[in-house]
Each structure stands twice: as structure tokens, then as C-alpha cells.
Amino acid sequence: MLQWSGVDRASVLLIGAGVTSALWFLAAYAFSQAFLPGMVELHARARVLTLLVLLGCAIVVEAGRLSSGLAVIGIFNMIFIWLFLQQLGFWVADGWFARRGRAALLLLAADSFLLLWGMVQTGLSRVNILEDLNPPSLALTVLGVGQFALLALARPVLHRIAALAPVRVLVGAIGARLITIYLWHVPVIALLVGLTLLTPWGGPAPETPLWWWTRPAYFAATVAALFLLSALLGRLEWPVLRRIGDRAAADWAVSVSTLLIVLAPFCLMVFGLNVWVAATGTLALAASVGLQRMRRTVTIRAEMTVPLIRGL
Q: Structure pTM?
């Protein structure tokens, strides 16, 4: 609508980049979730080897990207790095981090951040790791290990804090709406700024004292708008729970729908937002939902729901 209404193209591109910047997460998350059953099985059979193979593949891709100067090669690390970090979550679920002593966790965290510092100093990583997020760089694996170690250290304290009733209420209220808030926060901010610019006042000049003093009001308005929006749209994102006796979608339908779900936000990352990418992405997501509604005669049985991670 902005493009067809004659708004300056540079402004449209800037708004489009902001609105779609959060959507890359859908590609990485849907991809990791699609591989979840198989990766859990690999973790149960050979957890150390699985982690080493993923890390080795990530190193090979990173070496190819740095030696060739072709950033596009790094896209392959969307496979290996995100699955590596997912594997660390399985190690947490298995209790490996919980069984380590405080000294061991401190040493693991210190070594990870020391290695990360070395990667920055030698040019293997940028100072701002957010710039190495898409495609993901090898530095994210090192950062992930350090963060997992620190979270394991803080786990007893976090458990005590989480047991407090006000905290449970707050976490429940935010957590139930988290994906909606994440996906919609930039469009809501853009809308509020746009409405301000339509007023006779026009809003204060950016980074002036008055602009800073009005930021708390903008933040409060954004939070209120997001919670209102999440109440309206959040229920559309609730998963459809499968029960024993329900018919499941055919394997080919699940595979194709997963590809379509990953492809739409992936194209946004590579090509940016334009009318054609938005239209085809919307059609791809609609088709993926339609395929998920196709059922075959095989029904879900109780033994198909047994968890594969030991200790869960």
C-alpha cells in the first residue's frame, strides 16, 4: 500500500526492513523444529559425536566463507549452527550442565568468552555479533556455550525467583503472548510514530532532550498497543493440540508444508521485502496451513507420544 500510494521508495524500504527484521526468526525456528525428532534421536544415540559433527560442518562453512569472501556461503550455517545450539538444549534437558560443579561451569564460561574475545581480535568475528546473525557466524556457537554455562550457574537463583507468585503471573502473561509481541512490535512502533507525524505537532526532533523525555510515554503506548493486539491475534497462534485417535497429516504433506514455512521468511532475509516477496510468501504460508489440514488414515497412538530425551 505504501509503495502504490507514492510514498518515497527509500522510506518504504526502510520501513520494510524494520517490519520484516524479526521474521528471520521464523525461518530458523521452523527449520530447527522440523528437525527436532531426528536430532533428539541422534542425541540419544551419539550426543558427543552429533555435537562434534555439527561444529565441524560449521567450521568448514565458515572457512569457506572467509577464504572466498562470498558471504552467501555462510547461509549454509543456518543449518549447522542453529542445530548445534539446539543440541545444547538437549544437553541441558539431560542434566549434563546441572551435574557440573560451579567451578567447572565458571571455567567453561570463562574459556568461551576468552575464545570469543580472541575471535574478535583476530577478525574472525565482528565486535557487534548482531551483524553476524544472518548468516550466522561461528562466534554464535562459542557465545552459546558460554551463555548456557552462565544460565546453569544462575539456575538455583532463577528457580527461587520463578517460584514467587508475582513473577509467575508476569511470566505467564508475557510468555503466552511472546511470539505475537515479538512479531508485531516493530509494526506497532512504526504505526505509533506515523500517527504522531500526522498530528499538527509532528513530534519532537530525534535525539533532542524533548525527544528523550517523551520516550517513556512512547514505550508505555507501545506496550499497551501490543497487549491489546496480542489479545486479538494471539489466539490465532495457539497450536492445535493432537489427541490420541486423531488423524495425522501425511508425511509428504508435513515435509512440503515445512519447506513452505521456512522458504517464505528465508526469501525475506535474502531478497528483502517487496510486493512480490510479500505476496508469494503469504501464499506459501497459506498453502502450508492447508497441507497441514490434510489427514491420512493412520491415527495417532499413545506409543507415538513417548518422549525420546532421557530423563524427561
A: 0.78
